[in-house]
Amino acid sequence: MLTRKQLWYLMRKERGGLWFDACRAQGWQYDDEQRRHGIYQHLFDAGKIQHTRASQFDDRDFDAVKSHLLVLASNIQGTVETDHPEIGEKRRLLHVVKLRQPKLLSIVLPVAEGADRNAAAFEYIDQVMSSRFHTLEGLRPVDDLNVPELEMLRDTLAARIDTYRQKAGYTVHDMYQAAHLPCPPSTACRKCAIAKLNHTEPVSA
Ligand SMILES: [Zn+2]
Question: pTM above 0.70?
Answer without folding.
Answer: no
